[in-house]
Amino acid sequence: MKIYEYQAKGLFARYAIGVPKGIVAVTPAEALAAARSLGTMPIVLKAQIHSGGRGKAGGVRVIARLDEVETAAAGLLGRTLVTAQTGPKGQPVRALLVEEAVAVRQELYAGIAIDRSAGRPLVLVSAEGGVEIETLAARAPQKIVREAVDPAFGLRPFQTRRLFFSCGLDAGLGAAAATLLLNLYRLFIEKDCSAVEINPLVITRSMEVVALDAKVNVDENGLFRHPDLQALADTTPEDPREVEAGRLGLNYIKLKGNVGCMVNGAGLAMATMDLVKLAGAEPANFLDVGGGATAGMIGEGLRILLSDRDVKVVFINIFGGILRCDTLATGVREAASRLGGVPLPVVIRLEGTNREAGERILASAGLDFIPVRGLGEAAERIKELLSAHEHPGR
Ligand code: GDP
Ligand code: MN
Hints:
Blueprint: H1 5-14, E1 22-25, H2 28-38, E2 43-47, E3 60-63, H3 69-76, E4 80-81, E5 91-92, E6 96-100, E7 104-115, E8 120-126, H4 133-139, E9 144-148, H5 157-166, H6 171-190, E10 193-204, E11 209-211, E12 215-218, H7 227-230, H8 240-247, E13 251-254, E14 259-263, H9 266-278, E15 285-288, H10 295-306, E16 313-320, H11 325-339, E17 346-352, H12 355-364, E18 370-371, H13 375-390
Parallel strand pairs: 14-16, 16-17, 17-18
Antiparallel strand pairs: 1-6, 2-3, 2-6, 4-5, 7-8, 7-10, 8-9, 10-11, 10-12, 13-15
């Protein structure tokens, strides 16, 4: 889960990581009031989106005079910002961080991520931070120094010294930077983060070490332990169906195609998506109802699938194990009766525990689903249905 820069900086402040003074604004008038109450010029207006690359895309503006704040804020708020990291659709700017501008002497980079192959947190530091870090990583990767952390011992002070010494930072600054990095590591661990990044981490003209930017990604699997972070979840950028499914405990991801898939188990769901593609079609979604799905959850899952206008054919592929086929069928029947029928063709493959019972429930509910036994047969039926949909009357 991504959080906004201003939220990440709020966390930083709680971990004694230096950040510029700043106030969030959602209207131009609020931005002006924020600049006034900071009581210093110049200030920086920073578009709050769940993405980096804002500087290069015009989402970070240094404003010299108070009478320019409102106009500049109006130019950013409500705009859709397309950066190198947002994809072509961009992200809407709904809030600005109004910050005192910092006189920058040097821009460093500091980040912590999980090195999955080593199974350890990896701390990265560079003396050449700033908006060109991706280019640096490609051009001169040796300029980004790394320390793998043994999770049992945590980040050791000698490692932080080694990192900043390699960067050529002088001893006094190195000590301040090292303390900051230890605090960042503590935050990373205590808040169950998947990645944290400060780019740029700056040395100011008055020789302080300050986090000018803040990126914090939280591992959603650990979110239940952090009510404070749960409150920061901003669900608006996602597909509303994904949000709803998430609340119901279903694992749903919206995709581009037109075959709606309902499957139990992530592995089977992946295999089913492959199958749909082999049939020359595209899945409209990934939906893993999981092993412990109740009839209620199944029904909700079907309703969410059917609410997607892109879906032309539904494919239910269930291997009855912990989730029994009769539970699945009961959920489908209840959803169908609540929705007054299922308006789309449904190809269904039931296999495993209580298959016959499931089939009986569906048949007695009068649902004329298209039963298939094997996956090859399923692919054939999906192909036929889609071509009938694309070429009606043929
Ligand atoms: P990003 O492009 O989304 O990563 O946004 P950043 O927060 O990193 O801002 C982009 C760039 O704007 C930074 O790398 C800085 O060079 C510059 N910048 C941001 N705030 C300030 C500031 O207070 N003073 C100065 N001098 N530059 C700033
Ligand atoms: Mn940045």
